[in-house]
Amino acid sequence: MTTAPDRLDPLLEGEDPQTEYARDARHWIALYREMITFNRDLLERVGRMMPMSGPASRREAIQRDLAVIEEQMHRYERRIEYWTKQQWELEGLHLDPETRTLTWGGSSIKLTKRELQLLVTLVEWSPHFLNARRLLVEAWHDSALPEETLRTYIVRLRLKLSELGLRAELINRPRQGYALIFGS
Fold this sequence. Notes:
Helices cover about 55% and strands about 15% of the residues. The protein is of the alpha+beta class. It folds into two domains: about 20-90; about 95-180, Orthogonal Bundle (Arc Repressor Mutant, subunit A), CATH 1.10.10.10. It starts with about 20 loop residues before the first helix and ends with a strand. A hairpin with a 4-residue loop joins strand 1 and strand 2. A three-stranded antiparallel β-sheet has the order 1-2-3. The chain has a two-stranded antiparallel ribbon with strand order 4-5. The longest helix is centred in the middle third of the chain and has 36 residues, at about 55-90.
């Protein structure tokens, strides 16, 4: 099991780093992701207000608040990193990025570079849906690729995960996008 967070990163109420349930890891990833989104929005709003903030003392106070929010975001990012590692372990997944081999339950499959990137993104966002454009950006940092390319890799990855026998389903919902949903 990966090491628990250190004392510098206090836990939220109910957060149990020693959990044995992958769904708990997925829950905490989603929660921290929401908190980061909230803080990014807050930073953006405050940043827009800075030029209109008036006296220098008020600007200094706002800058101190911004520093606190930014540090909080870094803490949340560390928590997501921790929970993502936990999720892979608790799902029983082992990924060798150098050989692009995914192992689960004693079976292994080889992935192409794009399949690997797509899988990692889907696992990190599970159980949330990502629309095609967002998935292209998150997985491959390229929104210019045609969605048909994404669909081709989705089909390939779906087949390989089925071959592996992984208790997860790569699904597509109209107007929501794609998600990798793990069985309990």
